[in-house]
Amino acid sequence: MSAKYFLIASFLALLPAAPAAAACPAIQAAVDAMNAGKTAEAATAATKTEGCSTQEQTIALRVAGIAAFNEIATAVAGGAPLEGFEAKLQSIQTEFASPWQVRDALGDIYRGQKNYAAASDAYQSALEIGSDESVTPDWMAPDADYIVRLDKLASEMRLLSDQPVKLASRGPCKVNFRGVTLKKKSTPVRYVFGKAEFTPEGEAAAKDLSECLRSMDAKEIVLIGHTDPVGSDEANMTLSVARADALGQYLAKAGYAGAWKVVGKGESEPFKPDDASAYTTDQLNQLNRRVEVDVQKAGN
User: Fold this and answer.
1) Which of 207, 205, 197 is nearest to 162 (CA)?
2) In terms of domains, do 238 and 109 share one?
3) How many domains are contained in the chain?
């Protein structure tokens, strides 16, 4: 994890459209304390929310949480191992309304522990929390590149997990995150070796995908099948098409009424992990065996 500092010089200066009288004083006080490196004062300020809306109370708490997170980031930048702060990060997320930065850092820890299901959920929730404009204003949100990174890490961990991990962590699926469109989902649908037949875990993942498409009111999708490099190019191309088609047939029977088509890529487009050296050959092959869902049109 790189040190992620969020030293906000002035809440009101960065949000000129918000009249001073309308701003929650607890937020400005927490920001000022955070910028001064006074973590305890930020935590105290975040509790003095009389007259603040529920959303503003959440923002104030998250500012205090980021102040506590910055202490950890400073220690990690100085050479301390991130994994040593797992309990502290869990405490911050509970006490301070779970800032996305904390969920991201926990994702890094779980990933290092090879707890891929927990890592996927942590990265996915970081993405969703950071993209919720009602309680994560622009000045404390991830930028476009980091949104893409969180989505990619969540997908990577989801594919590596031995148990099904939902495509959305909090609420319905969506493709737009703070103006960043993420149409393509790598689904963790598992198949019997060499066949287009779901494993029990694969069927659970297919069911989750069906619910995901329903929640975003998907109108048109492309299912893109991929395989690992084991076997001939021709056989893998045929298998990738068959697996994508099997998923499409399942979705149609499960109630998906939109348009869909299948594309087979075989082994020609292997998954590009964040750090390939962290995985075994079997794990890399597991990442390669996937069906991507490209949402062409959605109602939300």
Assistant:
1) 205
2) no
3) 2
Radius of gyration of the chain (CA): 21
Q: Indicate whether 6 and 148 sit together in one domain.
A: yes
Residue 232 lies in a domain: yes
CA dist 83 and 72 (Å) reads: 11
Rounded Cα distance, 103 and 110, in Å: 10
Kindly report whether the global pTM for this prediction surpasses the value 0.85.
yes
Give the CATH number, domain containing residue 266: 3.30.1330.60
What the block records as the tokens of 48 is: 């003095």
Residue type, 280: T
Dig out the tokens for 16 from the structure: 């000129």
Q: Which two tokens stand for residue 256?
A: 């998906």
Tell me the one-letter amino acid at 15.
L
Residue 235 CA to residue 232 CA, distance in Å, equals 5
Band (300; pLDDT cuts 50, 70, 90) = low
